[in-house]
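Work package 3, deliverable 3.1, input record:
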Amino acid sequence: MKSARLIAMLFLLVMAHAAQAGGQITIAAAADLKFAMDEIVSLFGKAHPAARVATVYGSSGKFHTQIRQGAPYDLYFSADIAYPRALKADGFAASEVQAYALGRIVLWRASRAGKAPSLEDLTDPSIQSIAIANPRHAPYGKRAEEALRAAGVWDKVESRLVYGENVAQTAQFVQTGNAQIGLIALSLALSPELSAHGSYTLIPDSLHRPLEQGFIITQYAAGNPLAGDFSRFMRSPEVRAIMLRHGFAPPAKAG
Amino acid sequence: MESAFSAADLSAIWLTLKLATVVTFILLLIGTPMAWWLARTRSGWKGAIGALVALPIVLPPTVIGFYLLVMMGPDGPIGHLTQSLGIGLLPFTFTGLVIASVFYSLPFVVQPLQNAFEAIPERALETAATLRATALDTFFSVVVPLARPGFLTAAVLGFAHTVGEFGVVLMIGGNIPGQTRVVSVQIYDHVEAMQYGAAHWLSAGMVVFSFVVLLLLYTFNPTGRRR
């Protein structure tokens, strides 16, 4: 009887394995990629019907730390290319660091009435709370601080800043009306949920260092061919078009 | 590892202690009558009210944080109220954190008090009544001394639980120095910014603090556990 049970278990294991013959990858992606990546993954799924692709969205810095601690992510898309570069330098990457986009920041508020907001409007004392991502560790927060400083309004707004854990939470502070205005990713301002309820103004990219974004295949995925497939897929014209539509400019140079 | 605590760390520690003190005080004030009612009532509502009070033990902090953010926002019922009272909006403020923490730590104060009140024999109250003590007299000269271990447990747990709060603060705090950036959030930021040395100092401080608090509670308040 025991051997029969063993055989049954082996059979189930083999079946489970066969079901995964198309391969499986988990992608850790910066919060600003949420909408673009969902679309890219669904397109990838059409070309690889047997593949299973899971996506996790969050802060680039946190993923970076988690990958150093052995997190089971196959690909890592960071809003700041410095993070994957650091991982590569320390042997946590199984590919070169690939730049995939330039992010843009916008001023966003949860109202479609009136004229679009401007950086000068931030000094208006009737604005009580201005949301930005935390400049200590969120790439969009760092660039937002640079832009506010370059525009000469930092000293006037600093006491009214509220800090989101990542750029998505920053948008959510504004969307719920608890902050009157926020500096968020263009990709989020263009998302269906936010674009229907708010208006934005692009912040000139001359006011901050470029938000160069990059990804790697992690060491964890070293033997996983599907990770390589996805990486090549990112360079396809279809993906480029999706990224453009979601507010990501093409990277300055490949690599 | 650099120096132990930065100015920002000290500000977070001070803010956390201030928050926990204010919250504990408020909770003892409102938790005592609630616990008394729960301990003595024969009302059919006892189960429902008791369950409501215990909800924060079970609910993920994200649920509490999400609803508070929406309800305290400009379109929420609490937001409408605070705006019409001229207080403004509560998220990202110390007052907002106090309200959130009162709700979040409520069961940790009410339940020990309720247990202590339930353990007071009916006869003690009846004796006080035959001596013509008023209800208030009875409460302060009979109930409070008998329930002292319960009060101590309630105060310590309410305080410690507020110090240990994280998820709700992260969702409604906005991470403002001196206002809402408490120790748990500061640790999170240190880790995110990969400043593990600073994170270690604060984290180890929390471990020591929590252990000492519980040790004192269990050492000096044995009656609270063995009856």
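Chain A has two domains: 2-102+210-245, 105-202.
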